[in-house]
Amino acid sequence: MKTPKNKHIDLTAAQKLIKNRKRPIDPQMLSAEILAGNTIALSRAITLIESTTSAHQKTAQEILAACLPHTKKAFRVGITGVPGVGKSTFIEALGMLAIEQGKKVAVLAVDPSSTISQGSILGDKTRMERLTADANAFIRPSPAGDALGGVARKTREAISLCEAAGFDLIFIETVGVGQSEIAVHQMTDFFLLLKLAGAGDELQGIKRGIIEMADAIVINKADGINTIAAKHAKTEFSRALHLYRPKASAWQPKIMLCSALKETGIDEIWQTLLEFEAHTKANGFFESNRQDQNKYWLQATVVNALKDRFYKDETVKQQLPKLLDAINTGKVSAFQAAQELLKNFK
Amino acid sequence: MKTPKNKHIDLTAAQKLIKNRKRPIDPQMLSAEILAGNTIALSRAITLIESTTSAHQKTAQEILAACLPHTKKAFRVGITGVPGVGKSTFIEALGMLAIEQGKKVAVLAVDPSSTISQGSILGDKTRMERLTADANAFIRPSPAGDALGGVARKTREAISLCEAAGFDLIFIETVGVGQSEIAVHQMTDFFLLLKLAGAGDELQGIKRGIIEMADAIVINKADGINTIAAKHAKTEFSRALHLYRPKASAWQPKIMLCSALKETGIDEIWQTLLEFEAHTKANGFFESNRQDQNKYWLQATVVNALKDRFYKDETVKQQLPKLLDAINTGKVSAFQAAQELLKNFK
């Protein structure tokens, strides 16, 4: 056994650590620990899910298979907002309130850019000091990965494990890079857009498609001198939402004000979440939406794999640039080019 | 040769018709006629494109191949609006103005539901009497077909043929069934949403995602007692658009009022189209967007074909319902189910 050379390290502790690290993982035992609510086991299992080693992946899938049948469905809340909007403070305030109401709260994140930017959201747990210290909370930063598909799969599986461990309220946070809001929307029951109050121009930052996904738009930092601007923003958003058709959930999206820092408006948001859950469970949308989401991820995984096989095909790789050029110079139509590619694929 | 039995029919004319019908189509000759601007030849070629007979399809592709290299790029304008909003009257007013300005105008439609509803849009050419009678206009109803993919392909090819025939302004109309607006948006340079003025509640009918696609929202029937409501609607839409990020085209979408029937506001809309065309041609968006669209249709065609092969596979067909059930009852994850399906596919 190799021992650390640095003499400042406690040799006994280090050897114990190394021994534990080498001990093979027993998926059945780890699953049992997760189902018993052990968050250290939960953490280890999520690490396996996030691992790129195929042995770890195999173990992770075994754990997942053992946990899935015993998984109780949590209420999953997606939260998006640009950096600086106060997501961590907001989640801490809302999460602590939920814990007071008897909930067990997990916080996960989808941030496909975290490996590039080196600034993983939730990476700094000190931003959620109270939640981090609470036995009824579990916080996990975004898994590393540059492809959204991979990050989404890992997060979906982490959700299942959190549910297996008894967490009944799960927040999934995203800063909205690329298509990550769509991914989070497709894995949550409730989608919340966090915004800042501010001058008219600051409102012009909403990504296309986000307003329509939102079940609630919460304007944060609505305190002190910001209060008037926040109320104005609320009116603007109410008008904008008013233009859209009713949602499939038959839920009328809410616009709310809060100050996560001063903890004002948080209770109203919590009530709204409960109201939405009751509303969609009563009208059947909660369950049908979950089934649609399952179908969505099944189909998305299939399509991604098929596209992957196709675009990695040598003939396709060789022909594609030439054909794109031929389309753009008007030599063939996009459909003819596609047929040409498909003809030579298997 | 069979001759008609009905004695009221002119025998000579009937025989000539039958003879012509049986005459094989020469793709080279038809292409030359199209390129010379012959709308009868154009019409025949589009009929071939729409045909499901494989011999016709083959000829159609030959004609297309012969025409594509000589195709001048028209300005393509997508127009969407619910039935009753006055699309035909609007297109007639705008089209006649464009013809006065020296343009040649083609009107096509994407309506995947037309075979089901039996009520093809543009089917009744009498709604556009003046355009129908004008030598510089060409009107063609939506091709039949229940799958949007097929209708989209046919329409894209019809657009190319119209461009080959010298039409330099092409309207593509849709009532917005299913995903048809997205298809039309992906085959046009400018996307126009036609709305009706009315009480606040009437505004609540906009499909999600449409506002963000619009380069202009035109409120029609803004005349007489509707004027006040129309102005109010204009303010509401301006506020809503204000919430979004600037578009990739760097074009600020316009909200305009018009009365297609009284022909007020039409000139302003025409000026807006010209302004947009100049703006996007100057900043390079016009060309880059066309290239993105070509890529989009190539990829969409590939994905559709791959999905088609996959979901028509016997093993997949057999496994899919069982696996969906297994996901919904929590036995496997969506990703595991997808892997299972993919494993057994080729």
Automatic annotation (TrEMBL), chains A, B:
<dbReference type="GO" id="GO:0005525">
    <property type="term" value="F:GTP binding"/>
</dbReference>
<dbReference type="Pfam" id="PF03308">
    <property type="entry name" value="MeaB"/>
</dbReference>
<comment type="similarity">
    <text>Belongs to the SIMIBI class G3E GTPase family. ArgK/MeaB subfamily.</text>
</comment>
<dbReference type="InterPro" id="IPR005129">
    <property type="entry name" value="GTPase_ArgK"/>
</dbReference>
<feature type="domain" description="AAA+ ATPase">
    <location>
        <begin position="73"/>
        <end position="247"/>
    </location>
</feature>
<protein>
    <submittedName>
        <fullName>Methylmalonyl-CoA mutase metallochaperone MeaB</fullName>
    </submittedName>
</protein>
<dbReference type="InterPro" id="IPR027417">
    <property type="entry name" value="P-loop_NTPase"/>
</dbReference>
<dbReference type="InterPro" id="IPR003593">
    <property type="entry name" value="AAA+_ATPase"/>
</dbReference>
<dbReference type="GO" id="GO:0005737">
    <property type="term" value="C:cytoplasm"/>
</dbReference>
<dbReference type="GO" id="GO:0003924">
    <property type="term" value="F:GTPase activity"/>
</dbReference>
